Amino acid sequence: MMGEFTGLPDLASRAFGGGVVHANDEFFAAADHLVLPAPPGHAPKTFDHKGQVYDGWETRRRREAGHDIAIIRLGAPGVVHGVNVDTAFFTGNYPPQASVEAAALPGYPGREELAAADWTELVPRSDLKGDSANLFPVADRRRWTHIRLRIFPDGGVARLRVHGEVVPDPALLPKTFDVAAAQYGATVVDCSNMFYGNPQRMLMPGLAQNMGDGWETSRRRDDGNDWVLVKLAAPAVLRFADLDTSHFKGNAPGGARLTGRDERTGSEEWIELLPRVALRPDTAHRFPLVKAPEVTHVRLDIFPDGGMARLRLLGRASRAYLHARMSG
Question: Which residues form the Allantoicase domain (predicted)?
Fold first, then answer.
């Protein structure tokens, strides 16, 4: 289905460090809005010296032939599965059409290097709807670092979501790093409950801002417990775990346990990494882990329910796996 890719991380998000490195015009509203992680908002009849205030990128009305562009540096380089050219709240001023291109560039290129880059079309010039999520699947499975959005001929776009798989450059990673970090390619593949908050938030960069910026389950009324299953950024030998209950005061789990397994072997056996430990409310805990072989997946069990702000798993990742991912 067309929108299946929207569950994948937004590689362009400011939450990963994505940014707009060039826009030819942003007269009415700055292009930086394109990569903000929060959903776009709107306050009708709110005017400044340039007109109605919009939470998005808006260019002036063209009086000559041409089109407008914005170039985005992906915060997490990777394989793009689809894009969302979101025109939320732009009704009489959205672009009738747009296209999306991509490039893979080393380092931190400037305007001249970007202009001379070899750009590949991911989404051909396509019609847009106003005040809508315009979803476009992408078939090309190469790794990209930059995206160029073209709008025809002008107008406003609220957000550009670039959904895909994170593929980090192993040359830029230390031997030991957080292999549960979404910015390096870790992802949640299953969980028991996410009534109040999606567990993928636990893997995001930085400290949680509030209770809404974490994983929280509903209250259990049985004898079970809640859990989440994380696919690591790479197979790894794990050394430490950070279990952060920050902001969760009356609803932190009473305890937690970590187990892992290597799904490359086909074994369904779970290896104990952290025996059940007590957790405290509103606390960043760090625990050393039991010595174990490489694992590809880790299961976090919380007892019996509650909220977790962040999960960090520090370990030594398989360099062979990372290099294979980088080379495609």
Answer: 17-166, 185-317
**Measured CA distances, 166 to 80, 171, 283 (Å):** 9, 15, 29
Query: Is pLDDT above 70 for 46?
Result: yes
Which residue ranges form the domains of the chain, and what is each CATH number?
Answer: 2-166 (2.60.120.260), 171-327 (2.60.120.260)
Q: What CA–CA distance (Å, rounded) separates 47 from 28?
A: 11
CA distances for 297 relative to 145, 311, 313, angstroms: 27, 13, 11
Both tokens of 44, joined, read 């009708």
Query: How many Å apart are CA 81 and CA 138, to the nearest integer?
Result: 5
Which residues does 43 contact at the CB level (< 8 Å), separation at least 6? 53
Give the burial string for 103-131 (b: 16+ CB within 10 Å, else e): bebeeebeeeebeebebeebbeeeebebe
Average pLDDT (310-323) is 97
Q: Is the pLDDT of residue 139 over 60?
A: yes
Q: What distance lies between CA 226 and its chain's CA centroid?
A: 24
> What does the alpha-carbon distance between residue 283 and residue 248 come to, in Å, rounded to a whole number?
8
Amino acid of residue 241 = A
pLDDT of residue 327: 86
Cross-strand bridge partners of residue 274: 258
- Tell me the C-alpha distance between 60 and 155, whole Å: 7
The Cα 319–Cα 328 span in angstroms is 14
| Amino acid residing at 281 | P
Number of C-beta neighbours around residue 323 at 10 A: 13
Q: In this structure, are residues 46 and 113 in contact, taking their beta carbons and an 8 Å threshold?
A: no
Beta bridge partners of 134: 85
SS3 content of the chain, % helix, strand, coil (to 5): 10, 45, 45
